[in-house]
Design a protein that fits this description.
57% of the residues lie in helices and 16% in strands. The chain is an alpha+beta fold. It has a domain of 221 residues: Multidrug efflux transporter AcrB transmembrane domain (Multidrug efflux transporter AcrB transmembrane fold, Up-down Bundle). Helix 1 runs antiparallel to helix 10 and helix 10 crosses helix 13. The protein is elongated and about 110 Å long.
């Protein structure tokens, strides 16, 4: 590589550092812009100020645990139902403007973590507004007759008299039974108006599978009622006049325009495939999260300064250059965290700090090889070439193995461990770029200069 190309790359690295550094922490740049604008009457824009995404343990938030009712779901379909429930809850929360929810399936339970929402009632409302939509058909004629006869038998009687009637509970049974057609198969819901009464209704459009189920349901129940339930409450029970193809239906009732519009919006956000019940709630306050974040930042700064001190004391001038490369590496990784974006948790910060140590490891391997080559009285350019070439296999193998572990953790572990794996993996990739490319360019910039004559610096 010619000296001119080295200088060009060096300038490009400094430009990269300028942008990543300001993206990471734009306050100083923006304050300078404000000063120039006020003094020179300019209209310079601020640098893009994009905040970090903080997880539940750093930002505060709510942890909710729900129990899913899978009693009507076949054993072989329960896993798919829970995965569908998780997807719907995530989509539902995002739909209302709360980003990055952590929703995990734990058997027949669903753990929901929402960062930035401190009020549990608000979080419960976000999820609780998600309706469970279900279509039911009439039970058999024999069962319907039993229910109707028992309802007539208890009609007009007091509670004490009712309880003396044999099997009085039959009168309270739901005359409709589940059909398997739920909000899981819903493609779209929208506000509409009945063509005769002009009252607001909710128009439904099912997906392909739901359209087939709805067609089979209406064909089977011509002349009978099909009931529409929202959150296990009967909303409408129209009589089927004929088989309905195309997967279209409507929910009618005593809705106001706003109620019908809200119901359509909630159904679009995601009707639950199975009913859920809240069994546990826990909130993490922002004060605790801020304390954790401050402690993490303090530990990171102390660790970074200790690494710089070690590198300069043991490797002198190359150690100083490596420290500068490490500073660029940190700004690059933090900028990536903002751009991806990565939701930072305590575990994720730990992964990032660990990657700093791994970046230093790569530099140590390179500098050790350079020192060995310098003992053979080779030219500085040859020393650099051999040092990086001989250190590369060790750096490659160690980092590749670490990336494999990160991939395994990200694929099979829980959300917090996934955060650790993601930040560590991004840090490893950036550290290889920093150690192999940036550090080498820095060394080549000063190679052949007067500093090369002072052997004790190297």
């Amino acid at each position: 590589m010619s000296k001119r190309n080295v200088y060009l790359i060096f300038v490009a690295i400094l430009v990269l550092f300028f942008f990543t550094g300001n993206l990471t922490y734009p306050n100083y740049f923006n304050q300078g812009v404000d000063f120039l604008n006020s003094k020179l009457n300019l209209k310079l824009p601020h640098f893009w100020d994009r905040p970090f995404k903080l997880g539940l343990d750093l930002q505060g938030g709510v942890h909710l645990l729900y129990q899913a009712d899978l009693s009507t779901i076949a054993e072989k379909d329960r896993s798919d139902a829970m995965e569908g429930l998780r997807d719907v809850i995530e989509r539902r929360i995002n739909y209302f403007g709360v980003q990055e929810p952590q929703v995990q399936v734990e058997g027949e339970r669903l753990a929901v973590e929402i960062a930035g929402v401190i009020d549990p009632a608000q979080a419960i409302k976000l999820i609780g507004q998600t309706p469970f939509l279900e279509f039911k058909e009439q039970k058999s004629d024999e069962e319907m007759k039993k229910i109707e006869d028992k309802q007539k038998e208890i009609e007009g009687k007091s509670q004490e008299e009712i309880q003396k009637i044999p099997d009085w509970q039959v009168a309270l049974e739901d005359p409709f039974q589940s059909t398997g057609l739920t909000g899981k198969y819903l493609a779209k819901a929208e506000l509409g108006f009945d063509q005769t009464s002009y009252k607001p209704v909710v128009l439904l459009q099912f997906n392909d599978e739901g359209a087939k189920l709805f067609e089979q349901l209406t064909e089977k129940n011509v002349g009978k009622r099909v009931a529409i339930y929202i959150d296990n409450v009967l909303i409408s029970a129209p009589v089927v006049q004929e088989k309905i193809s195309g997967g279209k239906a409507q929910i009618s009732g005593s809705f106001t325009d706003q109620e019908a519009r809200d119901l359509a919006r909630n159904l679009n956000a995601g009707a639950l495939p199975v009913p859920i019940t809240l069994i546990s709630q826990q909130s993490v306050g922002p004060i605790l999260g801020k304390a954790s974040l401050d402690s993490s930042l303090k530990a990171g700064i102390i660790g970074f300064l200790a690494v710089i001190l070690f590198m300069i004391l043991f490797y002198r001038f190359p150690g100083l250059l490596a420290s500068l490369a490490l500073l660029i590496y940190i700004s690059l990784v933090l900028a990536l965290f903002k751009l991806v974006p990565v939701t930072l948790t305590l575990a994720g910060i730990a992964g990032f700090l660990l990657s700093i140590g791994m970046a230093v490891d790569a530099n140590i391997l390179i500098f050790s090889r350079i020192r060995e080559e310098m003992k053979q009285q080779k030219s500085f350019a040859a020393v650099l070439e051999e040092g990086f070439r001989r250190a590369w296999p060790s750096i490659r193998d160690s980092n590749f193995n670490s990336l494999i572990v990160c991939a395994i953790l990200f694929g099979f572990a829980t959300s917090f461990i996934k955060g650790f794996a993601l930040t560590l993996a991004l840090g490893i990739l950036a550290s290889m770029f920093s150690a192999i490319f940036i550090t080498e360019v820095f060394l080549r910039v000063f190679g052949g200069s007067r500093l090369e004559k002072f052997k004790w610096l190297w």
